[in-house]
């Protein structure tokens, strides 16, 4: 089961002036922003250069109005379907490796989604994040430039992935969440929208560049990772993550094989075969429920080869080359 009920944009609290002002802004934006074809719902709205649906637009306004970041916060940022679930598990288990034994771990009985909350799943009234232990971990699919200025002081782990695999993964995922009032979204339609940049939280390329540029400006604040490097050299990435989060792997831990334990615990094979990730739903805020097994499909590099023609591949690679030109960021061609 997965549901995506339509969002009631006019829901307001009479006695909260700030919230009511925000609701009015949301309503006004929905009426005035440029619209594009939605994947889950009929429309996406172009807000400051990025495409959001009604619910995520409201979440963005909520974050700007109510979220108070701490300089010690660590934020996992990603475009949808780039490896967020994997990184949630890796960051949580790396940071909390003294707290749980690998033979009886929190992740054996709880989904990776429960470890790090998504900022775009916030609703009103916002959860009291001040009670979270330091460093607080958050996740987001919002582009860097859509986040409030106060978050400049936070650390970010950004994970990106070959857009061809992102597209395939996203199309599978969204097909299950798409409103039942709409006709199914064909792969060709999804491809076209993706290439035009019209895609939840996208355009993909501008999303990646928003974090890449920030990482060049503040390399100590943004750890820029790729799904593909994680697949090929997970031990290197886990050590980088541990260093970046301020908890380097000690010599003793190296001797005890802790890095390997973390990698095995968080592997696609292990997580996708756990009962807790096979049944039931993960809830995101009040409005979105997603089948847990929907976060685990194939977990491979290059599944796009089963979906994209040579011409489609060339078109996406061409866009990547053109968009990344001069940025110092290399593309994803194998
Ligand atoms: P989200 O944007 O909805 O949070 P996200 O976790 O970023 O999704 O991406 C899901 C993809 O990561 C899926 O890719 P696929 O459709 O190509 O298979 C999913 O299978 C993959 N994935 C999930 N967990 C892991 C893991 N532990 N190792 C490798 N890949 C994983």
TrEMBL record:
It holds the Pfam family Sulfotransfer_1. Residues 71-328 form the Sulfotransferase domain. Its EC number is 2.8.2.-. Keywords: Transferase. One of its GO terms (molecular function) is sulfotransferase activity. Belongs to the sulfotransferase 1 family. This is Sulfotransferase. The lineage of its organism: Eukaryota, Viridiplantae, Streptophyta, Embryophyta, Tracheophyta.
